[in-house]
Amino acid sequence: MINRPRLARPTTKQRIVLLASPLVVGLIVPSLTKALVQCFVGGIPLGAAVADVLQKQFASGHNLFLLSLFGLIPFVVLVVQLLDDTKNRTFRACVVICACGLVGILALVIPTHFMVWYPLYGPGRMGSTDAVAFVFIPIYSIVPLFMALGIGRLVTRFPWFQPYPKGHCQRCGYNLQGNVSGVCPECGTKASP
Fold it and tell me: Is residue 3 part of a domain?
């Protein structure tokens, strides 16, 4: 059998990055989608489109920032799911689950944001009820999120995502049974209790 390296559970820094990345993506993607629609459909230069979106995020009379916060609902659900996964799974498995969850959310968020913003900059006009879509997009995104999380969790059942068994060093796999020093003699990692 091939001895393949296995990764340990996420460190504190890795957990912070894993838990923060969905929130960062959730804040950036809707605004970026709007800027790209302005750029490619409306013919506005990219710099001007980004500046317009940034200005309207916090301008009075515009609720883009509040919409962005409301749009974080599926990303917060993903973070809650990852909280448990980072305690019980390897870092590699957590990255796969996080990536699958993000793909599940963004598969619905990006096209629907495009459809809502397109009439403002393309041929046509935005209906008075189109803005209501921003209320439903985060809620509807939870369904593909859980579908993608299920796929990610199935994929992480493959052996190369599993941690070393108890009694082994979680970094190099060295058998620590009978070790009284509490330090792995192979790699120097402090043994977990």
Answer: no
